[in-house]
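User: structure tokens for this one?
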Amino acid sequence: QVQLQESGGGSVQAGGSLRLSCAISGYIFKSYCMVWFRQVQGKRREGIAAITSDGSSSYTKSVKGRFTISKDKMQNTLDLEMNELKPEDTGLYYCAADGEDTGECSWYDEELLEEDFKYWGQGTQVTVSS
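Assistant:
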């Protein structure tokens, strides 16, 4: 059974940085697509960053150039480095894995689909004040 647990959320002023981490248990890094979603209050979850099994990363436009997704195979973690944070980055951040063996991450019209991801963490709150 794969389990994901996020940490590293908190409150920060605009322009600041945070690093989120997702601890992965019951899982051996192989050929999953790993992603970060976020949910702003009142809106559906939005996929913001993805990393393939071979380490290729991709991002939604709103975070590209400011956020970096990475994975540490030794520590079994998925990380999200967030810089130049803005108030609109405020939300609940989730890590997820698709549980498939293709190793690829698919964006549809520049969106990640929630239904493509089988395993989810509980989320960690990020609050950016102006």
